[in-house]
Amino acid sequence: MATVFQMPGRPFWFYQITGADGTRQPRISTKTTNKTKAKKMAADAEAKERERALKGNTKGKFFARIVENAARLAEDGKLSADKAEEMIRELRQLANPEFKETRLAEYWRDWIAHRARHLSPSTIANSRDAFKKWAAVAPAMMQLPVTAVEIKHVRDGVAAMQTGDSAIATSTASNYVAELRELLDNAIEERLMNHNPARSKSIRRTRKFTATKNKEKVGPFTPDEVRNLLEFASDEWKGMILFGYFSGLRMMDIARLNEINLDGEDLVQTSGKTETQTRTPLHMQLRGWLQGRKGDFFPNIRVMANSNVSTAFSNLMKKAGVPREATLPGGDRVKRSFHSLRHTFTSVLANAGIPAEVRMKLTGQKDSDVHSSYTHHDHATLKNAVIQIPSV
Known about the structure:
By secondary structure, the chain is mainly alpha-helical. The chain has helices at 35-55, 59-75, 81-95, 104-115, 121-137, 139-142, 151-161, 170-189, 201-209, 223-232, 235-247, 251-255, 284-290, 306-320, 340-351, 356-363, 371-374, 379-386; strands at residues 3-6, 13-16, 28-29, 262-263, 266-270, 277-281, 325-327, 333-335. α5 (121-137) crosses α8, α7 (151-161) packs parallel to α9 (201-209) and α11 packs antiparallel against α13 (284-290).
C-alpha cells in the first residue's frame, strides 16, 4: 500500500510504494505541499507499478511475497486483523488493477438507496439520520475505505455522540450503532471485510461509560401546555398525548396499543422496557377518544422508528409553542419531550396526595424497597387515583 508522509523540516510531501517484486521502494518527493495531490501521485505511481508487475509476469512472485510475509508475521504472533485486512487489499489490487475501494460514506449512501426500494420510509429515514450523525461525529471514519474501518473508529464515534453540547440519548446512540452494525454485516456478506468492528463488546462499554445525555433532568408539562399540544395534534397524536397524560405509559408502549389491551374500562399493558404488566383504569376523557376504535390505535406511528417518533413530537411541540426547556420552582433547568407526559402523570398524582407506592403501581416502576408494599392495592384505590387527574 502507498503511504504519504512528511520529513522533519521539509515542506514537501513524500510517498513510498510497494514494488512489483513485493518490496518497498525508496521514498519519493512529490515536490508539492498539498497532501491531496501527493496522495493522488502516490496512487498513480502504485497503479503503474501494478501494471508493470502484470506485464512483466511477476504477479505470481508478488503474490508469493505477500503470502510469505503474512506467514512470517503469523509465526511471530504479529499478524493482527488490521494487518491481514491490509494484505488482502493488496492482493485484490494486484489481481484486479481496476479494483476500487469504496469509502464508507459512499457505501452507506448506496446501501440506503438500495434499501429504499423495498423498506418503509420511516426505516429509511432512520438510516439517513444515523448516516448524518456518524458523518458529523466521525468524518474521518466515513472517508475511510469500508475495509479500513476499525473498532477504535467506531468507539471514538460513539463517545463523541454522547458528549458535548450536541450529545444524544444513549438509546438513540444505540440505534445509530445498530444501523452501522447492519451496514457492516452487509459488507461482510459482500466479502468486503471479514469482521464487524461495530460488534465489539468495547462498543457497548463505551455507550455505557460515556452516557451523559440520560442524566439530564426531565421536567413535566403544565395542563395548559398539554392543551396546546392537543390543539395542534392530529387524531393519532391526540390519542398518544392523552394516553401519556392519563396513563403515564412510555412512548413506544403507547404506540403499540391495540384493542386487545382493553379490559372493560381498564387498560392492561406490558412494558417493552421492564416487562412489567400494569392495569390502569381509563380516565373519562381517554375513554371518549377510544370510543368506537378497533384494531391498532396508532397504525401510522407504531411503524415509525423510535427516533422518528421523538422527532415528530418535538416538531409538534414547536408548532404548539411549547418550549423544550423550562425552569422549575427552585431554579432547576429541565428538558421536555414525550417522556415528560409520564412525569406530568406522576406529578399530578403526587400533588393530589396519591401515595408513592400507588403511583409506582400505576406506572409499572420497579423498586425493591417498596415493591412489597404496593403489590396489593385494590382496583378502587387505583381508580380513585386516576380520577384525580384533571381533564385537558
